[in-house]
Specification:
With 362 residues, the chain is α/β, with parallel strands linked by helices. The chain has two domains: 12-156, Rossmann fold (3-Layer(aba) Sandwich), CATH 3.40.50.1970; 169-354, Dehydroquinate synthase-like, alpha domain. The chain is built from 13 helices and eight strands. The strands form two sheets. The chain has a six-stranded parallel β-sheet, with helices on both faces. Helix 8 (237-249) packs antiparallel against helix 9, helix 8 (237-249) packs across helix 12 (322-332) and helix 12 (322-332) packs across helix 13. The chain is globular. Bound molecules: nicotinamide-adenine-dinucleotide.
Length: 362
C-alpha cells in the first residue's frame, strides 16, 4: 500500500430535519456581531426564520446570486460587506450561494456558516471559483471552508426535480473522481464509495416521491460525503470539462455533470480496473460496467444525458464549438489518470453531444 497523508476537515456538521433552527446558536457561538446572510434560495425557508434567529446580529441580507460567481457580482457583494463591517457570513441556498459566500470570505478573511439546499457539496470544500471573461478561475484557501454546515433535509423537499437529479449527479461526480484524483487514499475512497452508494440508493426514490424526508435525507448525506471526498482530494478530467463548459457557455452547472460523468468514467476507467470494480459495486452493478451503470442511473433519474440538449443563454451548444473546448481542456488539465489529448477529449465530447450510452473503453 502506498503511504498517504489525510487531513480531516475541521468543519462541524449539524444534520437533521428542523436543524435550520440552530443557525442562531451556531452564529452566537462564534461571537459574531455583524452577520451577512446570503439568501440564494429563501423560498426554501419557513417564514423569516433566519432573520428572527439572528436578531440584532443581522447586518446585511443579500439575495442576488449566480452560478460560477461572476466577478462583477463578487465585487459588489464584497463592497457591501465592507460597508457593513461584516464579521460572519451565513449562506443559505445551493452552490451559487456558497460560492458567493466563499468569494467574500476569501478577501475579508471571515468565517462562513453554510445551510445548503441543493446537493452541490461546495459547503464541504476549501475550493472557491470566480468567473470573468468566459473563464472560471478556481483555487483553494482554508478560510473559505465553512466552519459549520447545517443540513436540514426539510429545506430540500421543494427543490424541483429538474434541479434535484442533476445536482445529485454533481455530487456523484465528486465521489467518482475522488476515487482516482490526486490525493486519494483508502480513507477518501471509503468516504467516496459511501457517497456513491448513498446517492445511487436514494436518487431514484427521490425522483419518484420528492417529498419523502427519509430519502431526501439519505441523498443529502450522500451529497455531504461527496463534498468531503472532493474537499480531501482534487478533481480530474470530468470536473475540468464541466468547468470549461460552464465558463465558456454559462451552462447550468449540474446539467453538465449529469451529461459528462458517464463519458468521463468510460474514458478513465480503462486504466483503473480496481477503482472501477469498487465503483460498480457501490452503484449496485457488481461485475458490470460503471460507465454504463451511471448512464442507466441518469436515464432512470430523468436527468440530461445529451450535450446537445443543454440550455445556455446564447442558445443551443453547437457541435462546431466542441473542438475549441477540447483544446482548452487538454491545455489546462494538470492531473488525470489517463493521458488527455485534444483528440481524446473531442471524441468524448462528441459522444456526450450525441447522447450515446457509454461503456469503458478497451
Ligand atoms: P444553484 O445554487 O445555482 O441552484 C440551482 C437552482 O436551484 C437555483 O435556481 C436555485 O434558486 C434553486 N434552488 C436552490 N435550492 C432550492 C430549494 N431548496 N428549493 C427550490 N429551489 C432551490 O446551483 P448548484 O448546482 O447548487 O450550484 C452550482 C454552483 O456551485 C456552480 O457555480 C458550481 O461551480 C459551484 N460548485 C462549487 C463547488 C466547490 O467545491 N467549490 C462544488 C460544487 C459546485
Amino acid at each position: 500500500m502506498m503511504p498517504f497523508r489525510y487531513e480531516q476537515s475541521p468543519a462541524t456538521v449539524v444534520f437533521g430535519v428542523g436543524s435550520l433552527a440552530q443557525v442562531g446558536d451556531e452564529v452566537a457561538g462564534f461571537g459574531a456581531e455583524r452577520v451577512m446572510v446570503i439568501f440564494g434560495h429563501s423560498a426554501a425557508l419557513p417564514g423569516s426564520t433566519i432573520e428572527a434567529q439572528l436578531g440584532s446580529r443581522l447586518a446585511l441580507s443579500w439575495t442576488e446570486v449566480a452560478q460560477h460567481v461572476p466577478v462583477t457580482l463578487a465585487d459588489r457583494a464584497r463592497t457591501a460587506a465592507s460597508e457593513c463591517s461584516i464579521d460572519m457570513i451565513v449562506s443559505v441556498g445551493g452552490g451559487s450561494s456558497t460560492g458567493l459566500a466563499k468569494a467574500i470570505a476569501l478577501t475579508h478573511r471571515i468565517p462562513i456558516v453554510a445551510v445548503p439546499t441543493t446537493y452541490a457539496g461546495s459547503e464541504q470544500t476549501a475550493i472557491y471559483g470566480v468567473t470573468g471573461g468566459g473563464h472560471k478561475q478556481t483555487g483553494r484557501d482554508p478560510v473559505v471552508l465553512p466552519r459549520v454546515v447545517i443540513y436540514d433535509p426539510a429545506l430540500t423537499v421543494g427543490l424541483p426535480l429538474r434541479v434535484t437529479g442533476p445536482s445529485a449527479f454533481n455530487a456523484m461526480a465528486h465521489s467518482v473522481e475522488a476515487l482516482y484524483a490526486t490525493g486519494c487514499n483508502p480513507i477518501t475512497s471509503a468516504i467516496a464509495l459511501e457517497g456513491v452508494r448513498a446517492i445511487a440508493g436514494s436518487l431514484p426514490a427521490v425522483m419518484r416521491n420528492s417529498e419523502d424526508l427519509d430519502t431526501r435525507g439519505a441523498l443529502l448525506v450522500g451529497a455531504a460525503l461527496s463534498g468531503m471526498a472532493l474537499g480531501a482530494t482534487s478533481a480530474g478530467l470530468h470536473h475540468k470539462i464541466c468547468h470549461v463548459l460552464g465558463g465558456r457557455f454559462d451552462l447550468v452547472h449540474a446539467d453538465a455533470h449529469s451529461v459528462i460523468l458517464p463519458h468521463a468514467v468510460a474514458f478513465n476507467g480503462s486504466v483503473l480496473p480496481v477503482e472501477m470494480a469498487a465503483l460498480a459495486v457501490a452503484l449496485g452493478a457488481a461485475g458490470g460496467d460503471p460507465a454504463s451503470a451511471l448512464w442507466d442511473l441518469a436515464v432512470a433519474s430523468r436527468v440530461p444525458t445529451r450535450l446537445a440538449d443543454l440550455r445556455c443563454p446564447a442558445g443551443p451548444l453547437q457541435r462546431s464549438e466542441l473542438a475549441d473546448v477540447a483544446e482548452q481542456v487538454a491545455g489546462e488539465i494538470t492531473a488525470n489518470p489517463r493521458k488527455v489529448t485534444p483528440a481524446a477529449v473531442l471524441g468524448l465530447l462528441e459522444r456526450a453531444y450525441d447522447g450515446i450510452r457509454p461503456s469503458i473503453e478497451s
